[in-house]
Amino acid sequence: MESYASEHGESRGVTVVTKPRVVLGVSGGIAAYKACELLRRLTESGHDVRVVPTDAALHFVGAATWSALSGNPVSTEVWETVHEVPHVRIGQGADLVVVAPATADMLAKAAHGLADDLLTNTLLTARCPVVFAPAMHTEMWEHPATQENVATLRRRGAVVIEPAVGRLTGVDTGKGRLPDPAEIFEVCRRILARGTAAPDLAGRHVVVSAGGTREPLDPVRYLGNRSSGKQGYALARAAAARGARVTLVEANTGIPDPAGVDVVRVGTAVQLREAVLKAAADADAVVMAAAVADFRPAVYASGKIKKQDDGGAPTVELVRNPDILAELSADRALPGQVVVGFAAETDDVLAHGREKLRRKGCDLLVVNEVGERKTFGSEENEAVILASDGAETPVPYGPKEALAETVWDLVLPRLRPAT
Question: Which of 45, 172, 340, 397 is at 20 to 30 A from 292, Cα to Cα?
């Protein structure tokens, strides 16, 4: 993620390494202490970070802490070091500005172009990608004024991460919690990797399924599969970094929630179908990356099935689960909704994939070979993405996030025009 440039030209053949420059804005909420972890991840991964807190933020974490962790001076006022014109220079020189936490007050100021301190001035002068990670009480997040401010910022190209659901201050619980700093860092990393590219999924709602369903046989046993859910999570993270509102329907993954993603947890194929169809009602695209069990036991035993005295084994009758991908493709919730499927095959991969694409009726089908040591649980993947128009896009072996980006690149031109 390092960029290379010469500060004084290429004389004497000396190349100066320039670290990506990140401005970390911190506004005055109790979650300000979590920004220390985000700062650590940014600096340790090779970024030059300048922390710009508000006066209110310094009530929670002092300037000395920010300066020590970043290695850069910390100020809040436009009147400090005036000869350097910090209220202009900091924003102009940044490759990314991320505000975490972003309070309701900060979102309102940013949306209305107010500039009464160094951070808000920086936001006005920045011409790089800007990310807001909101944190506030549920009622404040849900207030129409806040939602309108968020919509305004997103319309202008900023990425506003959806807050997490969980424990807030005091005994309150709900939506408004700052997402995990590690996941905010992932959003920042992906946005920096895209450079100056605009958040091209802004204003879109996408649904992604991930993981593997489990079909209960008795209270302690189930029929399942080896899917880890990592590819689905990579798709969800990539979409969030590109500005989309993301609903992730996850089945039995155990992976931390991605920042800015609404997560719906399910267990079985029937539950996954219900959750996906509900979320897809207003979705621009649905990506079915989950490994959905084709069959489930016809009868669920209310007690643990015991070994038989005669040494025999019980017979398990199976029934078919609903074909969610075919149903989504045949009965689209919105005109022009894009549907993407996944095909995990063990032999004759492309032949089976082409047949499945024809049978399911989806727009894109990601076909990959799987096995005990292939794809499942791995950080890497390779695939061929088949399109309903006959196009085939091979994706070479590499990180699952690279495949995720390619999927969204192919979804984009197929989306209906934004309203």
Answer: 397
Task: Enter the pTM of the model.
Answer: 0.83
Domain spans in the chain, listed from the N-terminal domain onward: 18-193, 205-302+312-414
Among 121, 149, 225, 368, the one annotated catalytic: 225
- The pLDDT tens digits of the residues spanning 179-196 come to 999 999 999 998 998 877
Asked if residues 63 and 36 have their Cβ atoms less than 8 Å apart, the reply is no
Architecture of the domain spanning 18-193:
3-Layer(aba) Sandwich (3.40)
48 marked as binding residue = no
The token duo for 87 is: 């209220």
Residue 325 DSSP SS3: helix
Is 62 within 8 Å of 33 (Cβ atoms)? no
Residue 235 identity: L
- Residue 381 known to be catalytic: no
pLDDT in tens, 288-344: 999 999 999 999 999 998 887 777 888 889 999 999 999 999 999 999 999 999 998
User: Rounded to 5 degrees, what are φ and ψ at 144?
Assistant: -55, -35
User: In the CATH scheme, what is the code of domain 205-302+312-414?
Assistant: 3.40.50.10300
Whether 356 has a binding-site annotation, put simply, is yes
